[in-house]
Write a structure and sequence with these properties.
Layout: H1 2-13, H2 16-33
Length: 63
């Protein structure tokens, strides 16, 4: 959360360089937590990340 607060602070102050650095910190934290990057689990289910809903088996339930 510190990195997210740093983004807000940088945006409020108009410091583009600080905002870029804070966004990189958020990205690094998300990678470390497994929220971004390659799938780390193996449950056998296909990965539909980055697919439009209409191009997945879930599209039938979205109407």
């Amino acid at each position: 959360m510190d990195a997210r607060r740093a983004i807000a602070q940088a945006r409020r102050s108009g410091d583009a360089q600080a905002e870029t650095a804070a966004r990189a910190s958020v990205h690094a934290a998300k990678l470390a937590l497994g929220e971004r990057g390659p799938v780390w689990w193996t449950d056998g289910a296909p990965d539909y990340n980055r697919h439009l809903l209409r191009n997945t088996p879930y599209s039938a339930g979205s109407d």
